[in-house]
Specification:
The structure holds 2 protein chains of 2 kinds. Chain A is built from 19 helices and 2 strands. By secondary structure, chain A is an all-alpha fold. Chain A has one domain. In chain A, a hairpin with a 2-residue loop joins strand 1 and strand 2. In chain A, helix 18 runs antiparallel to helix 19. The longest helix of chain A has 30 residues. Chain B has 3 helices and 9 strands, in the order H-H-H-E-E-E-E-E-E-E-E-E. In chain B, a hairpin with a 4-residue loop joins strand 8 and strand 9. The N terminus of chain B is likely disordered. The termini of chain B are far apart. Chain B has a single domain, classed as Immunoglobulin-like. The longest helix of chain B is centred in the N-terminal third of the chain and has 20 residues. Chain B is an alpha+beta fold. Classes of the chains: A mainly alpha, B alpha+beta. The interface between A and B is medium-sized, with 30 and 33 residues.
């Protein structure tokens, strides 16, 4: 572990890694996206089916056992990232630092969309827990995981990561990242050994993030390949305490990332705690509005009302995924190339096994295509979310309140999407 | 000092106005930043002077504050951008492009310059490392 004093003057990047960010999308693109979102939303409310269609889908099956070869791949990749992070150069060229921000944090989303919750099989922490559990003859751990904790530890872990990326004093510092990863690894391994694999399902921020996004994968369901309608699998997202918090941290932090790059915010000199409070504030506002909108309906008992936010939470997933794609696409593709080349030279020795690392800025150079893609992701996520919420509302709400009971949620989703488009347009 | 700041403010205002004007016809052939870049003379032939003159940003660091602060400045790909820094304190100016550019300034430097061109469309932050502040955000359009 490095000491902070050994840190030379490094280039201070803004959001995790340095480098340029996307141009604002043109006004026309934002307007077209907003009109589509609004029109489709009310079309769904007024014209779509009146009986639930996705309810009572197949009961989620237990996933098959972890495949050993994926566990080995996970161990190798994890070991490589950690070696590069702890043994590499002490500045922004560190391959491990880039890998965490680009491949772990952002790459997780497309991976889960395409291959399902493969994170569960790759996770080196699960592998270590499996081996330790077998050695001490307690594969299921020593303690029972408290059910009422739900996903709250994962929400806290996600908040800790977005704080590091967006609001900490020096997100590009290798030392800071080493400390963050060390604490994360210690907590994750301790929790895993104590509580067994259920710890990763509920408390490991990245594992939970991947599991949530994987519900939207059209290719893999419950760990098995097979083309299906993701809107049928999505409602099977297990509802536990803290689920809304997990989604609110993901959506709120991405919005904060855009907002904090605005001229309004950059022109002020603000202290670190203000950044942190604002980041937390974004997440709290997203969560509060969602909870309020989900219970804003008549005809429910107090007990039913209490369950509404969790029961509707799955419908936030497409909005999160759409906005993450819009926000991070160039970052993933262009910083991803940098990170890949940096990982090939993990110890800063100047190794270039694949020759000169020329980086293609294809997406940045085609600004209209990029803007259209970003609007497309946001609107697609919005439409899926509205359809998912509509179907769930039909299932849960009494007949007399089926239309009016959905209104608040619909308006809120339109508001989320308009805010997202406004941020993409203005920052 | 006051005149310099006023000059900076005027330049920034001109740039901001030019930026506003460019919002509607994004794909139009005219590049508004050219008018902004011609801060010294009214350049008659826009295309030829663009590369030569480019955009100059006057940066002043005084009493722990930097001006401008967080302003948007429109530039085009390949256009020459010059930062002209006057400071009463040592600092490092970082240009967060790929690759990055850096300028070290010492206390009492007047009009120290860093010149570069940006090849990829996007937004590039120019930051004061010691003050941890965004000086300008260069909006690089194709």
């Amino acid at each position: 572990m490095r000491l902070p004093s050994s840190l030379p003057a490094v280039l201070l990047p803004q959001h995790g890694l340095g480098g340029s960010t996307d141009l604002p999308i043109p006004f026309l693109y934002a307007m077209v996206g907003a009109s589509w979102a609004l029109t489709i939303s009310f079309a769904v409310l007024a014209l779509a089916w009146k009986e639930p269609r996705f309810a009572g889908g197949p009961v989620p099956a237990d996933p098959p056992p972890r495949r050993p070869w994926l566990a080995i791949v996970g161990l190798l990749l994890g070991g490589w990232f950690l070696a590069a992070l702890f043994g590499g150069p002490d500045d922004a060229s560190n391959g491990g630092l880039q890998a965490v921000y680009v491949f772990v944090w952002v790459g997780l989303v497309p991976l889960a969309l395409v291959a399902g919750h493969v994170w569960r099989e790759l996770s080196p922490w699960r592998t270590v827990q499996g081996v330790v559990g077998r050695l001490v003859r307690r594969p299921e751990g020593f303690l029972r995981y408290p059910e009422r904790l739900g996903y709250w530890p994962a929400a806290a872990g996600l908040l800790a990561f977005v704080w590091l990326e967006l609001a900490s004093p020096d997100p590009g510092s290798v030392t800071t990242m080493c400390w963050w990863v060390a604490v994360y690894a210690a907590v994750t391994l301790t929790g895993g050994v104590l509580f067994g694999p259920v710890w990763f399902d509920r408390a490991d921020p990245f594992d939970v993030y991947s599991a949530v996004v994987a519900r939207l994968s059209p290719f893999v369901r419950d760990g098995r390949w097979g083309l299906h309608n993701p809107l049928r699998a999505l409602p099977a997202l297990p509802v536990r305490p803290g689920l809304v918090a997990v989604l609110a941290v993901l959506l709120g932090s991405t919005a904060y990332d855009s907002f904090s790059a605005s001229e309004f915010w950059q022109s002020r000199s603000l202290s670190g705690p203000i950044h942190t409070l604002t980041l937390v504030g974004f997440c709290v506002v997203v969560a509060t509005l969602f909870v309020a909108a989900s219970v804003a309906t008549g005809g429910l008992s107090a007990e039913q009302r209490r369950r509404m936010p969790g029961a509707m939470a799955h419908s936030l997933v497409p909005i999160v995924v759409g906005y993450v794609f819009a926000h991070y696409l160039t970052y993933l593709l262009e910083k991803g190339q940098q990170a890949f080349h940096a990982l090939l030279d993990p110890f800063g020795q100047g190794w270039q096994p694949l020759g000169d690392p020329g980086i293609s800025y294809f997406l940045s150079e085609h600004t209209s295509t990029l803007a259209a893609l970003k609007v497309g992701f946001v609107v697609a996520g919005h439409v899926l979310a509205v359809v998912a919420a509509h179907d769930k509302a039909l299932e849960l709400l009494p007949r007399a309140h089926r239309l009016t009971g959905q209104l608040a949620m619909l308006v809120l989703m339109v508001a989320y999407t308009f805010t997202g488009l406004f941020l993409l347009f203005s920052v | 000092m006051i005149t310099r700041i006023a000059g900076t403010a005027a330049l920034v205002l001109a740039l901001a106005l030019a930026g506003c004007g460019s919002d509607e016809p994004h794909d139009a052939g005219s590049t508004p930043s050219v008018t902004a870049s011609a801060d010294a003379s009214g350049s008659p032939s826009a295309e030829s002077t663009e590369a030569a003159a480019g955009v100059t940003v006057d940066v002043t660091i005084a009493d722990g504050k930097v001006t401008p602060r967080g302003e948007r400045i429109e530039v085009t790909v390949g256009e020459r951008v010059t930062l002209r820094v006057t400071t009463d304190a040592a600092d490092e100016i970082h240009v967060h492009s790929d690759p990055e550019h850096e300028l070290e300034v010492a206390a009492g430097d007047r009009g120290k310059e860093l010149s570069f061109a940006l090849d990829t469309p996007g937004q590039v932050a120019v930051e004061s490392h010691h003050l941890d502040a965004t000086i300008v955000q260069l909006v690089v359009r194709p």
